[in-house]
UniProtKB/TrEMBL annotation:
<dbReference type="InterPro" id="IPR050766">
    <property type="entry name" value="Bact_Lucif_Oxidored"/>
</dbReference>
<protein>
    <submittedName>
        <fullName>LLM class flavin-dependent oxidoreductase</fullName>
    </submittedName>
</protein>
<comment type="similarity">
    <text>To bacterial alkanal monooxygenase alpha and beta chains.</text>
</comment>
<feature type="domain" description="Luciferase-like">
    <location>
        <begin position="18"/>
        <end position="294"/>
    </location>
</feature>
<dbReference type="Pfam" id="PF00296">
    <property type="entry name" value="Bac_luciferase"/>
</dbReference>
<dbReference type="InterPro" id="IPR036661">
    <property type="entry name" value="Luciferase-like_sf"/>
</dbReference>
<dbReference type="InterPro" id="IPR011251">
    <property type="entry name" value="Luciferase-like_dom"/>
</dbReference>
<dbReference type="InterPro" id="IPR019949">
    <property type="entry name" value="CmoO-like"/>
</dbReference>
Amino acid sequence: MITVPLSALEVAMVQTGTPAEDTLRDTTEFARRVEELGYLRLWYAEHHHSPAIGAFPPVVLTAHAAALTASIRLGSGGVLAPNHAPIMLAEQFGTLAALHGGRIDLGIGRGPGTFDESTARALRRGAGPTTDDEYRDDVSSTLQLLVDEVGLDPLPEPWLLSSSTAGAALAAELGLPIAFAHHIRPDNTLAALAHYREHFSPSRWCASPRVLVCVETVCAETDEEAARLVGPMDVIKVGLLQGRGGIPFPTPEEAAAHSFTAQEAQVLAGFRAHQAQGSPETVAKQLTDLVDLTGADELMLVTPVYALADRLRSYELVKQHVMMPTA
């Protein structure tokens, strides 16, 4: 059993051949169900101009879910600082936290949330990629504005999202809890977290290092069924490796018919070795090993499978076989 809290990340995958409205309906049901299952928090990721992922603003999904739930923490995982004015982030999430009893998290990240350069420039009103100094200023300004300008209480809980040592260094410098994207850059996890813990400076937001690790988790009754469910995301990952960021999210049947080269299969196998995919027994061991390896204070599970029913079943199985019962 996992003794650290477990949380969920919603990436709003759009099923092939279905309208985006169906994805929004699914996100609503997903929020209700993961709260019932006892997950600590649910975060929404920011994405733009992708046929596989809905372009639904985290602040809007957070507000919607908060109105329909009672106890689960909700927020962005993350909202991308370069795409937004710091004062808007502070006002939006400060308001949500005041309205919803301190259940709101403000997870801040850096990437553009798109693989299309023209979309990235549109989001930034024609500006190019943000520099390290600009990103630090955006995060610092957002935190300061929460305190000085918003004037609401309680404040949202800020987190810094990272997939690199550079991001971990900023989280340590600002004294923020870190949410590490192990599901994206598993090779960076250990070095980044070591740097974060070694260089952490206490702040009003966090007294000591606090680590959340996000891991891709697909749990099914058998290892074979989990592998079938993982297939569509494998196709997406290979497309990303080939520079094709805008490909639709295939069905499991379409993914099963896809042929991978030997090199692609090797890359995918290497990635899967760092994640949690399989039967409840397999996933329990993988998640336990990850906690032991990283010293994580919390795990966040992302389950990018095609159908809502399969996704919910994965979270249910983890709840039944992996998550330590709460008092």
